[in-house]
């Protein structure tokens, strides 16, 4: 039902490349959280595939704390761990990830 007027975020996205393609096709963002830092998550290939314009970072606080805080209550101050993992997988700096994902969040929330 996407007619170009809908936008949003697929919360705690940890799906497949095929699912990411479908989400990108309808111009939604994918929220990446602590799960991407889990040792056995197996998400590196998908993270490498995502187009920059569709990525935002999130905490899902108080759940799904990133490594090395897994199992503890999640909080916003852990976002840099998520950004660091994404930067490592994509071969870019944490600053670049921060710039891209902050712009995407602003674009999403300022569009209304």
Structure description:
By secondary structure, the chain is mainly α. 39% of the residues lie in helices and 8% in strands. It has four helices and three strands; from the N terminus they run βαβαβαα. It has helices at 17-25, 44-49, 79-90, 94-110; strands at 9-10, 29-32, 55-57. The protein has a three-stranded parallel sheet. The two termini are 19 Å apart.
Shape: globular
The assembly state of the depicted protein chains is single chain
Helix content: 25-40%
| Amino- and carboxy-terminal Cα gap | 19 Å
Low-confidence stretches: none
Give the class from helix and strand content and strand pairing: mainly alpha
Main-sheet strand order equals 1-2-3
How much of the sequence lies in strands comes to 5-15%
- What's the alpha carbon Rg, rounded to whole Å? 13 Å
Q: Helix and strand string, N-terminal first?
A: EHEHEHH
Detail the topology: elements first, then pairings:
Layout: E1 9-10, H1 17-25, E2 29-32, H2 44-49, E3 55-57, H3 79-90, H4 94-110
Helix pairs in contact: 3-4
Write a concise keyword list for the protein shown above:
single chain; 112 residues; mainly alpha; three-stranded parallel β-sheet; 4 helices; 39% helix; 8% strand; globular
Give me a quick take on this structure.
The two termini are 19 Å apart. It is built from four helices and three strands; from the N terminus they run E-H-E-H-E-H-H. It is mainly alpha-helical and 112 residues long.
């Amino acid at each position: 039902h996407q007619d170009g007027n809908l936008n949003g975020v697929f919360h705690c996205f940890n799906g497949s490349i095929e699912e990411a393609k479908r989400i990108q096709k309808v111009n939604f963002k994918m929220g990446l959280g602590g799960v991407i830092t889990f040792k056995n998550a197996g998400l590196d290939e998908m993270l490498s595939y995502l187009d920059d314009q569709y990525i935002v970072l999130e905490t899902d606080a108080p759940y799904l704390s990133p490594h090395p805080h897994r199992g503890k209550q999640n909080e916003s101050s852990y976002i840099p761990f998520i950004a660091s993992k994404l930067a490592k997988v994509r071969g870019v700096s944490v600053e670049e990830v921060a710039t891209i994902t902050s712009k995407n969040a602003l674009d999403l929330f300022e569009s209304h």
